[in-house]
Design goal:
This protein has 16 helices and 13 strands. By secondary structure, the protein is an alpha/beta fold. The strands form three sheets. The protein has an eight-stranded mixed beta sheet with strand order 4-13-12-5-6-8-7-11, with helices on both faces. Strands 2-1-3 form a three-stranded mixed beta sheet. Strands 9-10 form a two-stranded antiparallel ribbon.
């Protein structure tokens, strides 16, 4: 701050400063047209409204004009009323404004209590008991939040949520106020961060390494070459879909030309097949765009398809001019169509004869799943969801695949480890596991996840 420049009152900080681009436009406007709206001052001389205009006047070399608040009523209400009519704020932004009011509202309540003035500045000690509640920290979810919500034009719960964001993650509050995210998005980000820290803390208690599993950071083709041939009973692959998902290298890295993408897929498919035992199986998940290509490539790699499964995600992407996307393809292939591992129990369910009709002729072991698997996909709010991963497969899928297509002690490989869901299922079911992950951050986070799982190693049958 230059010598002689006016300082800002804390109440002015309720609203954000302009972006550099917006400020540059304001400077040019003031240069051309002068200051249209005066800068409001507190009786003590500090700016309560107009920080941007004041700085722009200095930048433009224009003498600023001022008006002084008369000190009547609530300063917060006055400043907010000046800003709300000239700013188009959404409900999340209003909630942050309300949250930033809270300490000032509490200070005003304290002053009113000491002076015996009512909320409107008039006398009225009769409200002292009510006003004193705003001094209690608990009141941030009570009277003060209610007052702040009313002034900001939003609801109390939103202000309470915003207050927690302001207190714990002020940088996220700034993003909300700037319109870059919403209150629910900020809350979800805080929850993900908390979950990430909890996972890291638990992983720190686990052994540094394991003889039964490992996650390797590197390129899948290069790392597959280092694994002994004919060693894996099961390989499950959920590769990048080439549809613009950011796996750490930007969206464009997942938008290769078709020929380049498919040629790369042929390479890692061949590398995977060479690692399978003679009675091993290869499972691959892919999207609609390339399912027909993969069906052919798997045959060309010498594999035999046993099932073409559709994973029905129960809800998916809403489309406007075509049928909604709510499923993915899972190819189940083997090296030898007459020799393979297939355990029915992990992929069996009660038949209608058992569940609906109580028919004594029903097989007590149930019946195998159909080739459409109805398993909800993981949303950001799911307890199972790992923070920081753009995509994650439900354990209900990987447990079924690992359980039915391998035996305890077998080696399971996932060349696109991601969040480590295949590894979790392998550890739980007593299999060995090697996961390969190109993204170093993903490799670290999924390693932490598997460390935590390996502390308990619940055995599932």
């Amino acid at each position: 701050m230059r010598a002689g420049e006016k300082q800002s009152h804390p109440v002015a900080n309720i609203f954000p400063m302009m972006t550099a681009e917006e400020f540059a436009g304001l400077v040019e406007d003031i240069k051309a047209n002068g200051l249209k709206e005066p800068i409001w001052l507190h009786p003590d001389g500090r700016i309560i409204d107009g920080r941007n205009r004041y700085k722009a006047c200095i930048e433009a070399g224009v003498e600023p004009s001022f008006r002084t608040w008369n000190g009547e009523g609530s300063l917060v209400r006055f400043v907010v009323s000046l800003n709300l009519h000239r700013r188009h704020l959404n409900s999340s932004q209003r909630a942050i404004v309300g949250a930033k009011m809270l300490p000032i509202l509490e200070e005003e309540a304290k002053e009113r209590q000491l002076s015996g003035r009512g909320e409107d500045g008039s006398g009225g000690r009769g409200n002292k008991k009510t006003l004193s509640k705003s001094l209690d920290k608990v009141s941030r979810d009570g009277l003060a939040s209610q007052q702040a919500a009313k002034i900001a034009g939003t609801n109390r719960q939103y202000v309470s949520d915003a207050a927690k964001i302001v207190e714990t993650k002020p940088e996220l509050a700034d993003k909300v106020l700037a319109g870059q995210m919403t209150i629910p998005q900020a809350k979800a980000e805080i929850k993900r961060e908390e979950k990430r820290k909890q996972l890291e803390a638990k992983a720190a208690e686990a052994p540094a390494a394991s003889d039964s599993w490992k996650i390797v950071h590197g390129d899948c083709i290069e790392e597959l070459r280092k694994i002994e041939d004919l060693s894996a009973r099961l390989i499950f692959a959920d590769p990048p879909y080439n549809i613009g998902i950011d796996y750490g290298d930007g969206e464009q890295a997942d938008r290769l030309d078709d020929d380049e993408y498919l040629d790369w897929c042929r390479q890692w498919i061949r590398a995977c097949v060479s690692k399978l035992t003679p009675d091993g199986s290869f499972w691959l998940m892919i999207c609609d765009e390339y399912a027909d290509h993969f069906g052919i490539m798997l045959r060309q790699a010498g594999l035999y398809r046993r099932s073409w499964i559709k994973w029905y995600e129960t809800f998916g992407v809403n489309c406007q001019n075509k049928f909604n996307r709510c499923s993915r393809h899972i190819f189940y292939c083997v090296k030898d169509p007459k020799r393979f591992v297939f355990n029915p129990d992990p992929v069996s369910r009660q038949s209608d004869r058992q569940a609906k009709y109580g028919d004594a002729r029903a097989n007590p072991a149930g019946k195998l799943w159909d080739d459409v698997w109805e398993i909800p996909r993981l949303t950001d709010t799911c307890e199972e969801r790992m923070p920081g991963f753009p995509t994650q497969i439900p354990l209900a899928i990987t447990r079924a695949i690992v359980g039915c297509a391998s035996e305890p002690g077998d080696l399971v490989i996932d060349p696109f480890n991601g969040s480590g869901s295949t590894g979790v299922a392998a550890i739980e079911l007593g299999r060995k596991y090697v996961g390969i992950e190109k993204n170093e951050q993903f490799a670290k986070a999924s390693t932490d996840r598997l460390k935590v799982v390996s502390l308990v190693q619940p055995v599932r049958s």
